[in-house]
Design goal:
heterodimer, A: alpha+beta, Thrombin, subunit H, 6-stranded antiparallel beta barrel, 12 strands, 29% strand, elongated, B: mainly alpha, Arp2/3 complex 21 kDa subunit ARPC3
């Protein structure tokens, strides 16, 4: 029996679809897709971030103006950076004296990247950036905001694009240390909501609210001392030998449209 | 060939608006299921039946970009597409707002069940966190915005339908 025109059409569509799946599997579709999307994705993402910043300020607070709130955020970020600088200056070495912004102070090579797409929810906090292995980015590379605040790390890598798992992603974990007296070390993982938690901290460690949390440097591509957040709450169950710290990150990935990816000197293209 | 190219261009534009613009908006506005609603609108209301495979492609894109709520989104979206085709062909055969809203709600329900199931399986086999409540909450917002979009955004489109038809719909 001769196939009908509709049947042939449907068959062609299935073939096209199947072809696209093959392309996706075998020809690194992510790079191709982000390359095609880039010209409109970057401005659209920046527009979304701008709207998030300027139109939805009332979501952050119902009592103060958008400008005042933004100023407070800036102040807090600056205070956190200053406090971190102070702690490290006092105890460790003189090289951090000139600490003003992360990029200037560290001398770590980096590439700047634009955010192309985001997926932010309670169960997923990821975004795509427009640099990849060709620009010296590696799997596990640290991604920071312009102020040097740790944002996340690379979890998938293409030639000219990469997927970043943000610090608040529930599948993300990062070795951190607290800038408290005993320099407590732990693993911060994404939690439900835009918060992080550090579990299994022995109860003999003294941690308090507003202690700064920085990367510990135990992961090969993530340098130590990158600001992660501030301790919001310390919780302990009765009878438990451990306590947990809830950490509020200092960046909001919804507001990011530009980030820096730290590269190692060997991986520079 | 031009038809296929137009499809691809429109798809890329649609996906980019969803993953770059809408996902950058603050919660819960980032839950607007733009691709799904546009596809249902075109499939059910405009009778553009060739748009069914857009949702499957969207699932592929989410998997390729690794920014989906659950693994294997292509599977969930294929299931969703099948549901949409079935509902439009046999259940909500009229082209009213209620028909489209009901199709959207049921499609999102199927998507939620599929995503939660895959997350549960993923939790069993890879110990990935099983945040079923967050998937449910996210998709509840998506249902709300789908209805809102259909109610407030698409009726004006009917008024400029001739213009849209001449410029685009007749060519795909």
């Amino acid at each position: 029996m001769k196939p009908s025109a509709t049947g042939r059409k449907r068959f062609r569509r299935w073939i096209t679809l199947f072809g696209m799946i093959l392309v996706a599997l075998f020809f690194s579709f992510q790079g191709l897709l982000t390359m095609v999307m880039r010209p409109i994705a970057a401005p659209l993402s920046a527009l979304g971030s701008w709207i998030s910043d300027n139109v939805f300020w009332w979501q952050e607070s119902k009592t103060i103006s958008a400008e005042a709130l933004e100023d407070l955020y800036d102040d807090r970020r600056q205070l956190a950076i200053d406090a971190q600088a102070f702690e490290e200056l006092r105890e460790e070495n003189e090289l951090l004296k000139k600490e003003l912004s992360f990029v200037e102070r560290s001398g770590t090579p980096y590439v700047s990247a634009r955010v192309l797409a985001k997926s932010i929810s309670h169960s997923m906090n990821r975004f795509i950036i427009d640099v990849g292995s060709s620009e010296g980015v590696q799997l596990g590379s640290a991604v920071v905001s312009g102020e040097g605040i740790f944002v996340g790390k690379i979890v998938e890598l293409g030639a000219h694009s990469a997927t970043v798992s943000a610090i608040t992603d529930p599948t993300h974990s990062i070795a951190v240390s607290l800038l408290n007296e005993s320099r407590t070390i732990g693993v911060a993982t994404g939690s439900v909501g835009d918060l992080l938690k550090i579990e299994f901290i022995p109860t003999d460690e003294t941690i308090g609210e507003n202690d700064l949390v920085v990367t510990s440097g135990l992961e090969s591509l993530i340098p130590s001392g990158l600001l992660v957040g501030v301790v919001n709450t310390v919780q302990q169950e009765t009878g438990s030998p451990f306590q947990q710290a809830i950490v509020e990150p200092l960046t909001d990935i919804r507001r990011l449209s530009l980030v820096l990816v730290l590269t190692s000197p060997d991986s520079q293209p | 060939m031009i038809r296929i190219l137009l499809h691809i261009v429109f798809l890329l534009l649609l996906f980019t608006i969803q993953v770059s613009f809408i996902h950058a908006l603050p919660y819960p506005f980032d839950r607007i299921p733009f691709v799904l609603v546009v596809t249902i609108y075109l499939y059910q209301y405009q009778n553009q039946t060739s748009s069914w495979w857009w949702l499957v492609c969207y699932g592929i894109v989410l998997d390729v970009l690794s920014i989906s709520h659950a693994p294997l989104e292509v599977f969930s979206y294929t299931l969703l597409t099948g549901t949409m085709m079935l509902l439009v062909a046999h259940v909500f055969t009229n082209r009213s707002f209620y028909g489209m809203a009901a199709t959207s709600i049921l499609c999102l329900t199927v998507l939620t069940v599929s995503e939660v199931s895959i997350r549960a399986l993923s939790h069993v086999f890879t110990s990935a966190p099983f945040l079923w409540r967050s998937v449910l909450t996210v998709n509840l917002w998506a249902v709300f915005f789908a209805c809102l979009l259909l109610l407030f955004v698409f009726p004006p489109l009917r008024r400029i339908q001739v213009w849209v038809k001449q410029l685009f719909l007749d060519r795909i």
